[in-house]
Amino acid sequence: MSLRKLLHSTTIADKVLFSLLLLLSLSGIFLIKAFVPEGHTVVIELDNKPVYLLPLDKDGIVSVDGPLGKTTVEIKDNSVRIQDSPCRNKLCVRQGWIKTGALVCLPNRVVVTIDRGRETGNTIDAVTG
Amino acid sequence: MDTLVTITVVSRSQEKADRAMNTAFSEIEQIAKLSDFYSPESEISMINRKSGISGVTVSPDVLEMLSKARYVSENTGGAFDITIGPVMSLYDFHKGIKPDASKIRENLHFVNYRNLSVDRNNSTVFLKEKGMLVDPGGITKGYAADKAVEILKQQGIHAGLVAVAGDIKAFGLKPDGKPWTIGIRNPAPGNSEDDIIATIGLSDMAISTSGDYERFFILDGKKYHHLIDPKTGYPASGCRSVSVIAKKGVFTDSFATGVFILGPEKGMKVLDKMGFEGVIIDSTGKAQITPGIRGKVEFKKTPA
Amino acid sequence: MLSQDKYRIALLSAYAVGLHGLESLLPSPVPWLKFGLANIITLITLMLYGFRPAIMVTLIRVLISSLFTGTFPGPAFLLSLGGGVVSTLAMATALSAFRGLFSAVGLSLIGAFFHNMTQLFLAYFLLIRRIEPILFITPLIMLLGTLTGLVNGTVSELVIRHIKKSAITDPASGTG
Questions:
Q1: CA pair distance B65, B135, nearest whole angstrom
Q2: Whole-angstrom Cα distance, residue B92 to residue B102?
Q3: Is the CB of B191 inside 8 Å of chain A's CB atoms?
């Protein structure tokens, strides 16, 4: 059961497959890093519906109420992070700060994206308050 | 009423639009005259003069408004109470005068919506105790918006928007087929009138907002605003602004005040019970929205 | 043989559920990094006993794990089911269609790849209907899948050899 014996049991096809997958994923990572659009609007969606459209350059903390509870999102120094969320494994929190791309908390249905600014075309017809 | 009224209509005919809008404006003016607390000739003033003496026969509009006001009082546990007149009058928001605690205590017992008797059969309204005063300011604008929209529809208008100050009623869709976009003012201290914090699309719904920035003065570092809690006689704390969305303006106007005074927790429960939607921004600047409008309200900035 | 098959499937499923449970207890310093240890069981089952036992082990494992974690019958369950079934099918197809081309390592890589792709696809359709976050994490998931696929495949290979060896040295244990 030595490593050498193991290496011998792997076929050429195995090695080709492994190299291919490795190459594909690494280049994918580089491509994404290079081509992700620069955004300046933080879009926070619940159940695929936008709740917050916030400027990336204004610090602040907001929270969204999902089915599991409150997900808190923080914007600071032109970066966004999910500060806390009621999901089990807190993967979304562990992703930390992002300047581009997206953060997702699947269990609580929250998606935080950095977009190039939404053309909502919202001219306001009247103001209450 | 000393308020800015804006009417927008969608119509193919300029003539028809003008006629409809003029009729609607007249209706609003009429309602204002009948319910003006500060005018001695209004029906409200007559009711107030006859407090503890006799009932007063009133017009259908005033009857309807006061009857609805009682209903709202019942459903907000008395947080919304138009008999707050005697206590409200003690404050002067222009000059920044706050009454003594003793004066407030003396007048608190006058504040009791249960002593406002509305007789629909005889069209009379009676304030049971002498010294009581009704101030329908918290419900007239919403009611007026409802009536104005009714008139516009009667005049053949299918889509439009009536804004009586911040009490708005929208019906139909804009020419581009989209609902009317209403902006909610940012209640954060020191913010200007055109600082919008969120927008919502409305069609065939009314929206009103009660905020601690509308009428207020600052004395000794404390803010005294016009949303007085009928139980204490002092301005309610807990919220910065409350926006209520419902089918009728008469309810959005009054419940916005009631929910504001109840505070975020109790307020949300009332909205839930009544089946209304709303946005509550509490005193820490945190925003809460009812589940029904999730995804329909878009916040442009953090409230804090 | 039938009852021996059932016994085997039950035992293997138990191992799979156990491994899956153990894995979720492990502290994961890197987000998204799940080793997919239960897939080792599926692969071993496939290579030693064939497609039917393998797919059964997968189905049982997915079902029981999701019942235990309370994620049945939600989207997490569907994602797990989809990933498990498609990856088992892919591995079985590769094994039968390309006899001898791949060792356990290659098959594990194929399984991991299809498992992840299926889950990403399902996540897009059932959960997040925005392609950006999905595209964003795909290369990362693929990289992690490739690495764990390698490790799992190696472990599977080792285990299979061990089983085969003990089968040879112990003729009384039948077909192993």
A1: 11
A2: 17
A3: no
The answer to whether A50 faces chain B, any CB pair under 8 Å, is yes
Q: pLDDT digits over A3-27, tens only?
A: 666 666 778 888 899 999 999 999 9
| Chain C adjacent subunits, 3+ CB pairs under 8 A | A
* C-alpha–C-alpha distance, residues B258 and B271, integer Å: 10
Q: B191: nearest CA in chain A?
A: A129
Q: Are residues A30 and A53 in the same domain?
A: no
Portion 53-72 of A in contact with C at CB < 8 A: none
* Per-window interface: B 222-241 vs A, CB < 8 A: 241
Asked if residue A121 belongs to a domain, the reply is no
Residue B55 lies in a domain: yes
Domains of chain C are: 2-173 (1.10.1760.20)
A54 in a domain, yes or no? yes
Residue B245, C-beta contacts closer than 8 angstroms, at least 6 positions apart: B200, B202, B205, B206, B207, B252, B276, B277, B278, B293
ipTM over 0.90: no
Domain count, chain A: 2
* Alpha-carbon separation of residue B280 from A19, B37, C152, C166 (angstroms): 56, 29, 52, 70
Contact between C102 and A13 using a beta-carbon 8 Å cutoff: yes
Residue count of chain C, please give it: 176
Chains in touch with B (3+ beta-carbon pairs under 8 Å) read A
Co-location of A25 and A87 in the same domain: no
Task: Answer whether residue B253 is part of any domain.
Answer: yes
What pTM was estimated for this model as a whole?
Answer: 0.63
Q: Which residue of C has its CA nearest to A112?
A: C133
Domain that holds residue B223: 179-299
Question: Chain A to chain C, count of Cβ pairs less than 8 Å apart?
Answer: 98
Condensed to tens digits (0 to 9), the pLDDT of residues B230-268 reads: 999 999 999 999 999 999 999 999 999 999 999 999 999
* Distance to chain B for A32, nearest Cα, Å: 28
